[in-house]
Each structure stands twice: as C-alpha cells, then as structure tokens.
Design goal:
By secondary structure, the protein is mainly α. It contains 16 helices and 4 strands.
Length: 400
C-alpha cells in the first residue's frame, strides 16, 4: 500500500513537471530533450507505454512523443534569439569604439606631454631664437586674467598649427607671412613668464592724404599695433629680460604715421613712421614696415650707455634684432662687408651676429652693460679680445 502511494505521488510530480517542460509551454532550446527524459521516467514508473484513461503523466498522440520537426513553431523564441544576437553585435561594436576612443585619448595625452616638454626645452636651449631667426614672430595681447590668457593662447596655437600646415615652406615670402601672424612663440612665453602689459597706440595722421592711404590699405592700424606688441616680446627675449626690473619702465608706446622725409625714428617712446616712405616702397610693404617697427621698437627698449655708446653701435643693435627676427631686407650688405665695426645699421648688425656666435647671449650681456655707461672694453670683458681684434677676425672670416 505504501509503495503504491509513493508511486502515485511520483506520477503526480511527473505530471506537474511535464506541464513545465512541455514543448508547447516552454521556448527553452533543450525543452524537447527534457520532455523525452521525463517521459521515460514516467514509463518506468507506470510500466506502460501508452497512458491509460485517467492515469497521470504526459500523453502523446499515438503513444509517442513528437519529433522536433513536428513541434509547433516558436516565434517568441526565435525573436528572442534575434534580439540577443543583435544586442551582442551592438555590444561588441560599442566595446570596439570605446577601445578606439581610449587609444585616441592616450595618443592625445602623449602629444600634449611631448609639446609641453618641447616648449620647455625651447626656452632652455635658446631654440626660440633659432625659430625667430627663420622668420618666426610672436604676439602679445593684454588679457584681464591668467585663465583667459591661457585659453586665448591655446586657441591661437591651434590656429597657428593650421597656418603652419598650409605653408609648404618652399616660398620664403609665404613663410614669413605665416610666421608673422603666428602666435606659437607667444604661447611659450606667456606660459613661462607673466605678461606685463604695455599700452600700444597707432595714429595715422596721413590717413586722408594720398601717401597715407597705402599704409591704411596694406599695413593697417591693427596689424601695426600687434607688431609693436610682438616686437616687444621678441626684444625682451633677445635681451634676456624675463625679469621686469631689467627693462626700461615703459608703460605706453605710440606709433605715429605722418608725412615726412626719411623712414622712421624713435623719440620719447614714440615711433614716427614716414607715410611717404610707405607710399613709395616697391615690394612687400607690409614685411618691410614690420622690419622697420622691430628696429624702432629696439630703440625704445635698449640701453644706450646713458648717451655715451657709439651711435653706430646703437643702430647696429637695432638692426641685429631685425636680423634675428627674420626681416633683413635684400638691399642690406653681405656679412663681412663694411669699413668699421661701428659703421652702424646692417654692417654692425652682422658684426654683432658674429660676436654672438662666439658667445651665445653676447648682445644681451652687452646691452645690460650699457645700462649705466659704455666702454669698448666691454667687448674684451665678454669675449677676451678687443673690439678691433674681433673686427679683424670677422673680416678675415669672410676674406674681406
């Protein structure tokens, strides 16, 4: 009696399981095989291959379980499998995109670190001067705060990179124009030393005259103001005046364009530029005036030995700055030419460049010595030779 009762309970449990794993009730991929095993267990308990009326357990037509091909279609299962495959493909694509993004972020970080390192090295090993000597220039603007300064410099750097990428480097004039507007060196200088604002004003008193119109059309007030600022930053670099206490206490520089003879002159922190010279110049007047402004801005910032330094040396230092900025015009003499070391302008500029090649920073140190006076012995102090001996060596180098 107990055995029969146990068998009946087992058969009843089998019946419940059969409802759970019936192919028509479940979409599980292994449902058919589970159903077969359950049927076999039922047969073992019931000792019968065909279900008797009223008995418990799973039943099949004709006493046999259906084949997989005979099972009803399973649209829900198929749709589920399709969604699963679609999700897996989307997940794989997402993981691939994330990996590519991580790689790009890592590469960008490496490039940024490399750029910061390069800029730091440029400041240390005087490579900035080498860039300037190829025609590079910087710009300086007055920004209200440090954060705005940094953001502005970053935007200018991106623009500079694009400009430099568009220049093939084969056209000297094109390269000069690109570098003239390039703020790459400003990014370096503004990130290393604080900006000490100087006001720049440009007045075109000849704007309504025939000679003043070319300045307005081909040079312009805004470009001239930016050039004055860029020249200041470059001159501080040439003179190694990172510390404001080493500079003149100039707060404002004014450029006045007017009808007059000559080219230009600087007096009392004012630069007077001849509109007549601008109007009559044959060639790229914008580059020429840029070089002139670098020359005159040097007079604003250089020391002159309290008026005791030779005039030729003062003009030579100004043209040396113009030379290193990359704005030496084609009509200048060639290196080695000239009759005296203090002949001035281009002759003395090339001689100073020769002296600077013997001791990097020589011109900066010479200018520093001329803050309170002047003596020809400064050359011997810095280079170990008299200025006359240095001039003889310079002439011998060029067989002139």
């Amino acid at each position: 009696m107990v055995m029969i009762l146990c068998a009946a309970l087992l058969l009843q449990g089998t019946r419940k399981l059969s409802l759970m794993v019936h192919p028509e009730k479940s979409s599980h991929p292994q449902v058919y095989h589970a159903f077969i095993k359950l049927n076999k267990a039922f047969k073992d308990l019931d000792k019968s291959h065909v279900k008797a009326p009223g008995s418990l357990g799973p039943s099949f037509p004709h006493g046999q379980p259906p084949l997989p091909s005979q099972l009803p279609p399973q649209p829900l299962y198929q749709a589920s499998k399709q969604r699963e495959a679609t999700l897996e493909a989307a997940l794989a694509e997402k993981e691939f995109a994330e990996e590519e993004c991580r790689k790009k972020v890592d590469e960008a970080k490496k490039r940024e670190a490399s750029l910061e390192n390069d800029l730091a090295n440029m400041w240390k090993n005087d490579s900035v001067q080498a860039l300037y000597s190829k025609g590079g220039k910087s710009q300086e603007h007055r920004w209200p705060n440090k954060e705005e300064d940094k953001n502005r410099s970053r935007r200018q750097y991106d623009k500079c990179s694009q400009q430099m990428g568009d220049c093939d480097g084969n056209n000297e004039d094109e390269a000069k124009q690109v570098f003239t507007l390039s703020p790459l060196l400003l990014l370096l200088l503004s990130s290393i030393q604080p900006t000490h604002a100087v006001d720049y004003q440009v007045i075109n008193n000849a704007a309504n005259t025939p000679v003043g119109k070319r300045f307005a059309n081909e040079v312009g007030i805004n470009y001239s103001r930016d050039t004055l600022s860029a020249a200041t930053t470059f001159i501080w670099r040439i003179f190694q005046q990172a510390n404001p206490v080493d500079r003149k206490g100039v707060q404002k520089v004014t450029l006045i364009v007017e009808s007059m003879g000559g080219v230009a002159y600087a007096l009392n922190n004012e630069i007077h530029l001849s509109a007549n010279y601008v109007a009559g110049y044959s060639g790229n007047v914008k580059i020429e005036i840029t070089g002139v402004l670098y020359h005159e801005m040097t007079h604003v910032w250089q020391w002159n030995g309290n008026g005791r330094a030779p005039g030729g040396l003062i003009e030579g230092v100004a043209d040396y700055v113009r030379l290193k900025a990359g704005y030496a015009p084609s009509h200048w003499v060639k290196p080695g030419q000239g009759g005296r070391w203090d002949q001035g302008y281009d002759v003395t500029a090339y001689f100073l460049d020769y002296c600077n090649s013997l001791r990097n920073g020589f011109v900066a140190e010479l200018n520093k010595k001329m803050r309170n006076g002047y003596s020809d012995s400064f050359f011997n102090d810095l280079l170990g030779k008299s200025v006359d001996q240095l001039w003889s060596d310079y002439k011998a180098k060029y067989n002139s």
